[in-house]
UniProtKB/TrEMBL annotation:
Keywords: ATP-binding, Cell cycle, DNA-binding, Helicase, Hydrolase, Iron, Iron-sulfur, Isomerase, Metal-binding, Nucleotide-binding, Nucleus
InterPro entries for the chain: ATP-dep_Helicase_C (IPR006555), DinG/Rad3-like (IPR045028), Helic_SF1/SF2_ATP-bd_DinG/Rad3 (IPR014013), Helicase-like_DEXD_c2 (IPR006554), P-loop_NTPase (IPR027417), RAD3-like_helicase_DEAD (IPR010614), Rad3/Chl1-like (IPR013020)
Main location: nucleus
PROSITE patterns on file: HELICASE_ATP_BIND_2
Limits of the Helicase ATP-binding domain: 6-393
Record protein name field: ATP-dependent DNA helicase CHL1
């Protein structure tokens, strides 16, 4: 790392703001420090990959700089070894061509025996040795060698070739959705970088010419078969598990219809072309799909050949956070960099990746399907197959036995799961049952049945996690056909995420609203010493005059009877709900363009709207009708399309673009904290001149899940305290543990609030008002968990602010912005 006053050229496409330079510099220090350093960085004006004036360039700079440091001594040796590989390829291609001519001649003499149409569902003999991954088992030896050498599957690659291809630090960048990853790719295309080839390797004027070359970063997006498969026979299946198993099935030697797109000797040139095109063009997922389709080569497998030599790899959360997914893709984190964007929800994301559920009805269906399969093929099963297929019945014979785990401890779950996955048992049984259930006339086109066996396997996998970090819940499901559901929930992300944190050179958790920070230290990295954690809270780029933050504690300041407190006990108070409607109605009169109001839940939003639609005592017109008279009103609904609502909301503010259309009168959008509108959607400029958050969206403390979470936090904090200080006062330690559980619960609420607030004000010239409607926002405890730039902008006495004071502040703020 250079001296403190060293100016680093980040090759930013624009002149960065001071806070962006601060963010980039701190992130660069984390990457340079390495050795498992963790950075938790908050920047409200776009983090990695979110904003047009953003930081993807410094990410690339770190890799290129490291490459410049060591590439000189490796370059000549690398080129010599690559030439040897090229010669080997030519010789192998010649031998393959000769072998194909011989095989073609022999095939004319051999009569093909007709196969039993049901043979494809019979399990392979488990006694036959196999050392390959399930996705590639059954391929020819020479094909496996080629796939191995080019990084396909979880196969062992030649060490010498691997050293050639893996010659630099890789950056694994992950975000919540594919659309966010696509935004990041668009940003990667903006900056320009000098060549990473050292001028010392090229003499004279050629050296200067090489250094003048602009070198694009080598980027590769990774995704699942569900996103990349181009084989209609596979991609039409409904679930990821079914797609994975069918894909592997079509690669087996005895498969009647082998997948023609899997990389093999015959299309090796196309695979190379795919790899080289990917390295040269900075593609996103859609680009890879269309590239594979045009070349007629599988994008899923071909993209894995391009991992070696790639500098930045983008992938969605599940593919990075789950260890089995990383192993399946051949991802190695050792010595590389991991960047998690939108990381405010990282702990929930880890828990969701490892969560699973299954219903009693599905278990009964699984048992029935297994019985159908055994009845048809039981006598044909040999050796271990007969034993292993019989084992799952013991665990699903009786729901009570499953709940009590009687008999389950006699089964080696790890071995059973491995067997189910490698034998494709779930896929074969489900496909066969679907085949049997089809009418005779449709037997030629079997359909996929409900994937209950895949669900069962996922639940079994959950049972292999650390028992201390997870819980199993049951729930009775009402309805015409009542059912019971078992759910597995990972309570702590510590162990699951440690496999990433302890392997990578450095990990950066970045987001626009990372506050409050305490949970990351206490529950994600409790094992790390303080020097290993770097934290940063950047301010906002906007001037203070562009932000108006107010708390609305009551409709009338100082009147305890008009207090706004949307707690579970008080939120249904009709008078308070009515006063909330009048407050929003008054805001519609002074706030131009768009207003977004976030409610704690969909259920409460529906309850409030229903109250507003009713005419209150002493009023001639319902509040809901009066709102619609002032602005176009839109409401987010659970399960409905957010894109359609957003399009109509935007049109009501910006107009439809026609010259004869009436002047837009603005719009009001009623949304939900934690809903689609609060995650990843920006209400910049006219779309969000005011954002209001109603109440504090605490999770349901009485739900079994949250009871288990808080109990787990209390238990682990107490255990750590007693282990760290054996002589500590137990009563004090217990009190501290209970407080830690309360903080964890409250922090979950405040992260959701902060994420909703962050939807407004997206660039330096933007301006907006933020209204926090609940008296509790005025307390120091809650205020201290807001982002720093919000805390600094709060005006007035938080607990004494009434509607008249709010309206005066809003009127003055927007009056000063007219014409801007």
């Amino acid at each position: 790392m250079g001296p403190p006053d060293e100016v680093i050229d980040f090759h930013h496409p624009y002149t960065p703001y001071d806070v962006q330079t601060q963010f980039m510099t701190e992130a660069y220090k984390v990457l340079q420090t390495g050795n498992g350093q963790i950075g938790i960085l908050e920047s409200p004006t776009g983090t990695v990959g979110v904003d047009l004036e953003d930081e993807p360039d410094w990410i690339i700079e770190q890799t290129l700089q490291r490459k410049r440091d060591d590439i000189s001594k490796k370059w000549k040796q690398r080129e010599q070894r690559l030439e040897q590989i090229r010669l080997k390829e030519k010789a192998r291609a010649a031998r393959s061509a000769k072998r194909r001519r011989i095989d073609d001649g022999n095939q004319k003499k051999v009569l093909k025996n007709p196969e039993d149409e049901e043979a494809e569902w019979l399990l392979d003999d488990a006694d036959e040795p196999t050392s390959q991954s399930d996705a590639l088992s059954g391929l020819g030896k020479e094909t496996l060698e080629i796939l191995s050498r080019y990084g396909l599957g979880g196969l062992k690659r030649d060490k010498e070739d691997e050293e050639i291809l893996e010659d630099g630090v890789k950056i694994f960048y992950t975000s919540r959705t594919h659309s966010q990853l696509s935004q990041f790719v668009a940003e990667l295309r903006r900056p320009s970088f000098p060549s990473s080839m050292p001028s010392s390797l090229v003499s004279g004027e050629h050296g200067a010419a090489v250094q003048a070359i602009q070198e694009p970063v080598k980027h590769l997006p990774l995704s699942s078969r569900q996103k990349l498969c181009i084989n209609p026979a596979v991609s039409r299946l409904k679930t990821q598990s079914a797609i994975n198993d069918r894909c592997a099935e079509l690669q087996q030697p005895k498969s009647k219809n082998k997948c023609p797109y899997v990389p093999k000797e015959e299309n090796l040139n196309k695979t190379h072309q795919f790899r080289d095109t990917a390295h040269a063009t900075l593609p996103d997922i859609e680009d890879l799909f269309h590239l594979g389709k045009s070349l007629e080569v599988c994008p899923y497998y071909a993209s894995r050949t391009a991992i070696a030599g790639t500098e930045i790899i983008t992938l969605p959360y599940p593919l990075l956070l789950q260890k089995t997914a990383r192993e399946a893709l051949g991802i190695k984190l050792e010595g590389n960099i991991v960047i998690v964007d939108e990381a405010h929800n990282i702990m929930d994301a880890v828990a969701n990746v490892y969560a699973s559920e299954i219903r009693l009805g599905e278990l009964k269906r699984a048992r029935l399907m297994l019985g159908v399969y055994v009845k048809r093929f039981g006598k044909k099963l040999k050796g271990e197959n007969r034993v292993m297929v019989g084992q799952p019945e013991q665990g699903i014979v009786d729901a009570k036995e499953l709940l009590r785990s009687k008999g389950i401890d006699q089964i080696n779950l790890f071995k059973l799961i491995q067997y189910i996955q490698t034998s494709k048992l779930a896929y074969k049984i489900e496909s066969y049952v679907a085949y049997v259930e089809e009418d005779d006339s449709n037997k030629a086109a079997p359909r996929s049945s409900t994937p209950v066996l895949h669900t069962f396997v996922s639940f079994l996998v959950s049972l292999t996690n650390l028992s201390s970090e997870g819980r199993i819940f049951y729930q009775k499901l009402p309805g015409a056909a009542p059912d019971i559901q078992l759910s597995y929930l990972l309570l702590s992300p510590t162990h699951a995420f440690s496999s990433i944190a302890t392997s990578a050179r450095a990990v950066i958790l970045a987001g626009g609203t990372m506050s409050p920070f305490d949970d990351y230290r206490a529950h994600l990295f409790p094992y790390l010493p303080e020097p290993k954690l770097t934290t940063l809270r950047c301010g906002h780029v906007i001037p203070p005059s562009n932000l108006c933050v107010r708390t609305l504690a009551a409709s009338r300041a100082g009147d305890p009877n008009s207090t706004f407190e949307f707690s579970f006990q008080r939120r249904s108070d009709k008078a308070m709900v009515n006063q909330l409607g009048l407050a929003i109605l008054n805001m519609c009169a002074v706030v131009p363009d768009g207003i977004v109001v976030f409610f704690p839940s969909y259920g409460y939003l529906d309850e409030v709207v229903a109250a507003w639609e009713t005419t209150a005592a002493g009023e001639s017109t319902p509040i809901w009708t009066r709102m619609q008279q002032r602005k176009a009103v839109f409401k987010e609904s659970k399960g409905a399309s957010s894109e359609e609502v957003l399009a109509l909301y935007s049109e009501a503010i910006l107009g439809d673009g026609t010259s004869d259309a009436p002047k837009p009168r603005g719009a009001l959008l009623l949304s939900v904290v934690g809903g689609k509108m609060s995650e990843g959607i920006n209400f910049s400029d006219r779309l969000g001149r005011a954002v209001m958050v109603v109440g504090l969206p605490y999770p349901n403390m009485h739900s079994p899940e949250w009871k288990a979470k808080t109990e787990y936090v209390e238990m682990t904090v107490l255990k750590r305290a007693l282990e760290a200080e054996p002589g500590v006062d137990r009563a004090k330690a217990q009190a501290a543990a209970k407080q830690a559980a309360r903080d964890f619960y409250e922090n979950a609420c405040m992260r959701a609030v902060n994420q909703s607030i962050g939807r407004a004000i997206r660039h330096r010239g933007d301006y907006a008002a933020i209204i926090l409607c609940d008296r509790r926002y005025g307390t120091e405890r809650i205020k201290g968990k807001l982002p720093g730039w919000i805390q600094g902008g709060i005006q007035g006495d938080g607990q004494e602010s009434g509607l008249p004071q709010l309206m005066g502040a809003l009127s003055g703020f927007f009056r000063g912005k007219r014409g801007t």
